[in-house]
Each structure stands twice: as C-alpha cells, then as structure tokens.
Amino acid sequence: MVIASGEVGSRFSTGGWKSARLVICVEMAEQFAFYGISSNLITYLTGPLGESTAAAAANINAWSGTESFLPLLWGFIADSFLGRFRTILVASFLYILGLGLLSFSAMLPSHSKDPNQLQVTLFFCSLYLIA
C-alpha cells in the first residue's frame, strides 16, 4: 500500500476505522448540505430572488444538469492532470468556498423588493461552485 507522499505505508498504522469514520462523517455532512440546498432552491429563487416559477425551474434544471455532468470533468482532471488526492483537495476547497459564498449571498441585505445584482450574481456563482 502506498500513502499520499509516495512511501510504502504500514497496514497497522495507516487507514482503518479512524479514516473510515472521518470519510463517513464528512460525506454525511456534504450530503446534508447539498440536499438541504437543493430542496429549498425553488422557494429561495421565487421568494427572495423574485424569479417567476418558470425561470426558477429552468435555473434549477440547468444547475442539476451541471452538477450531474461535473463528476465526469473532475474524473478527467484527476486521471489526466492532478491525481485523485489533489483533485479531491481542490474540489473540497471549491465546495466549502461555494457554501460560504452561498451563505454570504443570502445574508446580503436588499433595500427594496427586488434583489440587487451583486446578490443574484454571488448567489449563482456560489451555487455553481457547489455543483
């Protein structure tokens, strides 16, 4: 077995249930965040962002298609350029950045009924970062 630094790792000191627990907990947290966001998108798009139901449905479909396609792109990047560990690190960083920006875009105050352009732009950029 080879560890991330390229050295041969010992079966007794690496991996095991400590690593498995960490991976399971991180994956559960990611799934809760993703499905929490995706289940509330139509409400947020038609409510605070003021989109029509048709426009909100079109935006959700475009986002769903993007999030279904991107694993293929990340797989290509991992196999061809970065390797799996660096790709996971980059994708995790982008995901956490997207979650933070999504929260920030929801906290921006809007002074009128219509949201400002910065709030909408930041929302969609962060939404596609977590795709």
Automatic annotation (TrEMBL):
The keyword Membrane applies. Keywords: Membrane, Transmembrane, Transmembrane helix. SUPFAM superfamilies: MFS general substrate transporter. The keyword Phosphoprotein does not apply. The chain crosses the membrane at residues 88-108. This is Protein NRT1/ PTR FAMILY 5.11. It comes from Noccaea caerulescens (Alpine penny-cress).
